Amino acid sequence: MSRKSWRCFFCDQVFTDRKEAWLHFGEENCTTDLPACVDPLRADEKARLDEVRELRAEVVREQQRAEDAEDAKGLLEDFYRELRRYFGKDCNSVWLAGDRYKSALNRLSDLEVKTPLCEVGKR
Questions:
Q1: Cα–Cα dist 79/1, whole Å
Q2: For the chain, what is the mean pLDDT?
Q3: Dist. CA 109–CA 72, nearest whole Å
Q4: Quick check: is 33 in a domain?
Q5: Contact at 8 Å (CB) between 24 and 15?
C-alpha cells in the first residue's frame, strides 16, 4: 500500500506524516475529520497541480514578454519622434529620413560648388 501524502497549496511543502500535516495546517490532534486542504492528493489532482504550476510559469513569461514589448514600443515611438523632429512632421520612415538627408547633403554640395567657401569671406 502506498503512503499517503499531503501537500500545502500555499508553500508547496509535502507531508508524509499525518501528525506533521495536521500541525502545519493548524490542527493539533488527529481526532477530528481532516480538513479538505489536507486530504491526500490523488493522481489526477497531482496532474492538475502540475498543470497549474506550468500555466503560472507561462503567465509570468508572457507578462515579461508583454513588458518587453511595451518597452520596445516606447523606444520605437521615441525614435519616430526624433525622426519627425529632424526631418519634418510628415516623416514616418527611416527611408524617407535618409532620402531627405541625402537631399540636404546634395543641396549643400550644390551651394558649395556655386559659391566656394574661400569666396564667402571676400564679400
A1: 67
A2: 78
A3: 37
A4: yes
A5: yes
78, part of any domain: no
Q: 72 in a domain, yes or no?
A: no
Give the phi and the psi of residue 67 in degrees, each rounded to 5. Answer: -65, -40
CA nearest neighbour of 29 among 38, 40, 87? 38
**Owning domain of residue 7:** 1-41
User: How many domains is the chain partitioned into structurally?
Assistant: 1
What secondary structure, in 3-state letters, does 44-107 show?
A: HHHHHHHHHHHHHHHHHHHHHHHHHHHHHHHHHHHHHHHHHHHHCCCCCCHHHHHHHHHHHHHH
Contact 15, 21 (CB under 8 A): yes
pLDDT for position 22 = 75
pLDDT digits (tens, 9 = 90+) for 30-83: 455 555 454 566 677 778 878 888 999 999 999 999 999 999 999 989 988 888
pLDDT exceeds 90 at position 123: no
Report the pLDDT value the prediction gives residue 38, as an integer from 0 to 100. Answer: 47
Confirm whether 19 is domain-assigned.
Answer: yes
User: What is the C-alpha separation between 15 and 8, in angstroms, rounded?
Assistant: 8
